[in-house]
Specification:
Length: 426
């Protein structure tokens, strides 16, 4: 049992730039989870952490305290090694969908405990819920059985996993304290370590559509998370990847499922394929699996077979038609040239305004809403050709979505796109 402290003493210590002791951290995280530290007190502490920071040992202890607030899962009884991926979130980021079955088809079990989206970035569960019949909620025995039989599970993280983080993340969301590196790193890593994966790859997004808009901040976040994972015995690496431009050619729940299925069928946009294969390579290496080429598993249909089994195991019909929006609106190119810029934040906001995302956790999302872009930076366009197709069930949403796109793209004369993978942190 943690030593007794006082919330105001802990807040003051951090407010004045001091470091929190192990016992202060253990106490405050535990007392907050049990409702003994008030929301307004934790909100003051989160703001003090955002402004003053935490040193490495404070972050390690904070993460351990969040893990200790709930259950830990154990996959050591499975017949194959486990690996997972976490993305810090971006626009059009559907990579988990093709990646989980692909890595499973290579012989590594993938327990993807995911969340729903908030704001302009989409959530993996929202995307899969566009598939008729698919259910996100699995019990722990169901999760284990599916991991053994199919090899891949994408489901909702149970309430027992790092409950301190569930409470704290909801509070940070409404108090302007999401963007603190110690809090982001401990939030993500407490869930991944409690989940019990053997290996982990982090996709840390950088750019206008990401939490981290500078490469320097993204590198610091990645370093902090890789160290936390490694210290906890999880083989962890990170890729820093561009999120100035959205991934693929669409953002929106059902639209992204369709694009993921194209990738699993051996096609799909080259950037989505490139990132899927890069992350698969990291996961296989982390799990100690060598001599399997994930590109072959896309080409020979085995990743698709695993996808179909994974969707069916959770009640989904992999052959069912995906929902179609009742209304579409097309935006055309005003001149011929080359697309020189497509801003991830503008596209994410447009998709959100069309109904693909939610403003509050309890809001519903439209499964068919979203944005398709018909050119990516570096591609030629002709005057009058469609640049964007907007999808929604409620046409009143078009005006604000078009306003979000305004200024979010440019046509010029030439452009060489920047690399997608910017750095690797081990
Ligand atoms: N994702 C999380 O799970 N936690 C954060 O703090 C930020 C992104």
């Amino acid at each position: 049992m943690a030593e007794r402290h006082d919330a105001v003493e802990v807040i003051r210590a951090k407010r004045d730039g001091g470091r929190l002791s192990d016992s202060q951290i253990d106490w405050v995280v535990d007392a907050y989870t049990r409702g003994l530290v008030a929301e307004e007190q934790m909100s003051a502490l989160a703001m003090a952490i955002l402004l003053r920071g935490m040193d490495r040992l404070e972050i390690v202890r904070w993460t351990s305290a969040m893990i200790a607030s709930g259950e830990r899962m154990d996959f050591s009884g499975l017949s194959r090694p486990t690996a997972d991926k976490h993305s810090t979130g971006g626009v059009g980021d559907k990579i988990t969908l093709p990646l989980a079955p692909l890595v499973a088809a290579c012989g590594v079990a993938v327990p993807q405990l995911s969340g729903r989206g908030l704001g302009h970035t989409g959530g993996t569960l929202d995307k899969l819920e566009a598939i008729p019949g698919w259910r996100a909620e699995l019990s722990n025995p169901e999760l284990m059985a599916q991991l053994e039989d199919v090899g891949a599970v994408i489901c909702a993280a149970g309430a027992g996993l790092a409950p301190a983080d569930k409470k704290l993340y909801a509070l940070r969301d409404v108090t302007g304290t999401v963007e603190a590196i110690p809090l982001i790193a401990s939030s993500i890593m407490s869930k991944k370590i409690a989940e019990g994966t053997g290996a982990l790859v982090l996709d840390v997004k950088v750019g206008s559509g990401a939490f981290m808009t500078s490469l320097e901040d993204a590198r610091e976040l990645a370093r902090t998370m890789v160290d936390l994972g490694t210290d906890a015995g999880v083989r962890t690496t990170a890729l820093l990847t561009d999120m100035g431009t959205p991934l693929g050619r669409c953002a929106g729940n059902g639209l992204e499922v369709a694009e993921s299925v194209e990738v699993l069928a051996g096609g799909g946009p080259p950037d989505v394929v490139e990132l899927t294969l890069a992350l698969a390579g990291e996961m296989l290496a982390g799990a100690g699996v060598t001599g399997v080429d994930p590109a072959e598993k896309l080409a020979d249909g085995s990743a698709m077979d695993t996808w179909r089994a994974m969707i069916a195991a959770q009640g989904g019909d992999p052959d069912a038609a995906l929902p179609k929006a009742r209304e579409t609106e097309v935006l055309t190119a005003p001149r011929a040239g080359v697309l020189t810029r497509l801003d991830a934040m503008a596209v994410g906001l447009a998709g959100w305004r069309l109904g693909a995302g939610r403003a509050r956790r309890e809001d519903p999302v439209q499964p068919a809403a979203g944005v398709e872009w018909h050119a990516r930076p570096g591609e030629r366009v002709s005057a009058g050709q469609p640049l964007f197709t907007l999808h929604t069930d409620e046409p009143a949403r078009f005006e604000r979505a078009l306003a979000a796109l305004d200024g979010g793209w440019e046509i010029g004369d030439s452009h060489t796109p920047a690399p997608l993978v910017l750095d690797r942190i081990i």
